[in-house]
């Protein structure tokens, strides 16, 4: 979905509280992921914040590797995350 967002747009994720202990006990990970959504977003935010300083840390997966350069910011709030898309590659956060 994120690549389809217009430049300068936002991707809002809700219900991130399901990534934490109380919910995970009731519904453990199944399927292809070995980490929670929150942990995945933390990995994305490390590359967004660290950019060129992250020379020894590899991207978690192909999506983060190929799209972190167009992410302007990753912001966390109560049970939510907001990811902004840059207007153009190389520009700063919106």
List keywords for this structure.
alpha+beta, 94 residues, 3 strands
SSE inventory with pairings:
Elements: E1 10-14, H1 21-26, H2 37-50, H3 62-67, E2 71-77, E3 80-85
Antiparallel strand pairs: 1-3, 2-3
Describe the structure.
The protein is built from 3 helices and 3 strands; from the N terminus they run βαααββ. With 94 residues, the chain is of the alpha+beta class. The protein has one domain. Strands 1-3-2 form a 3-stranded antiparallel β-sheet. A hairpin with a 2-residue loop joins β2 and β3. The two termini are 19 Å apart.
Total helices: the number is 3
Relative helix content: 25-40%
SSE series:
EHHHEE
Instruction: Tell me, briefly, the overall form.
Output: globular
What's the alpha carbon Rg, rounded to whole Å? 14 Å
Approximately how much beta-strand content do the residues carry? 15-25%
Strand order in the largest sheet: 1-3-2
Name the poorly predicted regions. Answer: none
Give the mean pLDDT.
Answer: 80
* Cα-to-Cα separation, first versus last residue: 19 Å
Structural class: alpha+beta
The biggest sheet amounts to: 3 strands, antiparallel
Number-wise, the strands total 3
How many structural domains does the protein architecture include? 1
